[in-house]
Design brief:
The protein has one domain (32-166). It has seven helices and no strands. The radius of gyration is 24 Å and the shape is elongated. It is 60% helix and 0% strand.
Length: 167
């Protein structure tokens, strides 16, 4: 007859019966330490402030330059060459999205909409981990972080190409 999981567990344990539980596997998710929960609260506060700032700012009608309201200089590349840098229009697009103008945000600078959605999703996820007490340890693996960074760089470059093509 066929070998069952309980038989394999029993054999692996040297003949002693291992805990054989039928049904779906239960994934263990570690609880966050107090230090991690404080970090999560800080991240949630920063993300909430970023969303609030997007609501307070008025998007530039030119599609770029909203960041200058924050005291930052105009884009040097745009001023010198007339061509946008990879992040030109991201702040304006982010502010448009914060005001619920998602189509205008996408058309202006796709990466700004992506950043807005990432900030909103990050706030929801952070609040969920705070409420449940779960750790971020499973998400902070090097492979996950590296993949996210590669995807973000690819999205920035694609959005930059789009911005050049539409200017």
């Amino acid at each position: 007859m066929g070998e069952t999981t309980a038989d394999r567990n029993s054999d692996a344990a040297g003949g002693a019966s291992a805990c054989a539980v039928s049904g779906p596997a239960v994934r263990w998710r570690p609880q966050a330490s107090w230090g991690e929960r404080i970090l999560q609260m800080g991240v949630a506060a920063v993300l909430a402030a970023a969303l609030g700032l997007g609501l307070v700012l008025k998007p530039s009608p030119t599609g770029t330059g909203t960041h200058t309201v924050l005291g930052l200089p105009p884009c040097g590349m745009l001023v010198m060459t007339g061509h946008p840098c990879p992040t030109c229009g991201v702040t304006t697009s982010y502010v448009l999205a914060a005001h619920g103008q998602f189509y205008d945000s996408l058309v202006n600078q796709p990466f700004g909409l992506i950043v807005f959605l990432a900030v909103a999703a990050g706030l929801v996820a952070t609040l969920a981990t705070l409420v449940t007490g779960r750790s971020w340890a499973l998400l902070a693996r090097a492979s996950v972080v590296a993949t996210a960074a590669i995807v973000m760089v690819a999205l920035v470059l694609a959005s930059w190409a789009y911005k050049w093509a539409t200017l």
